[in-house]
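Possible regression after last week's pipeline update?

I re-ran a chain I had predicted before the update to compare outputs. Posting the input and the new output here so someone can diff against the archived version. Not blocking, just want to make sure nothing changed silently.
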Amino acid sequence: MPKKVDHEARRQEISAALWRLANTRGVDGVSLRDVAAEAGVSLGRVQHYFRSKDDLLLYALRIINELATERIRERIEALDAEPTPRIILRACCAALLPLDAESRAGLLVSAAYYSRAVHDPALGAEARDGIPKLRDFYADQLRQAAERGEIPPERATEDEAMLLISLTDGLASYALLGVHSPEQALALLDRHLAGLFGPEEGEGPAEGGGRPG
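New output (post-update):
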């Protein structure tokens, strides 16, 4: 009886090879042949699943987003108490910072994808589609926080949600560049949240930087 091939597992193995290359040398100069060598398979095998580097980047980005979502879910489910909007927003934003090897590799792949998406309408459309959904989710959390009396009602807006997304993107980019450490990026995120929600219980004023998570 012929062996059943798990094609999705094969795609993920090839994608994981791209992440490893991204972490060590970036992906701009990486070819499908390089990915095949890193994955220990033939170039033909890679091309069987991905017709081009853009196809592979797009698939890798989708897997990265799924893993980030899973990390957020695990962090929230591990909490003893019912998560508040502040906790949910912090978990979402922290998952988009390069705080470990997996998230760093994912952000490097994402950066390469977005760079190519600027000049490719099809890739650009894929990149843009996820932003309104994330904005709406953040805005809904802010509205819930306002209803709970945790933030001023005038800050429960889509604009505030976009500012939070933009802040996180900037912090992640500068952490990758070494402008600040990932821990400093997380502290700056906490400082912003303290300015929005007020200090957490037992925490002093947010002046002078945030606190490491």
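Follow-up from reviewer: compared with the archived run. DSSP finds nine helices and no strands in the chain. Marking as no regression found.
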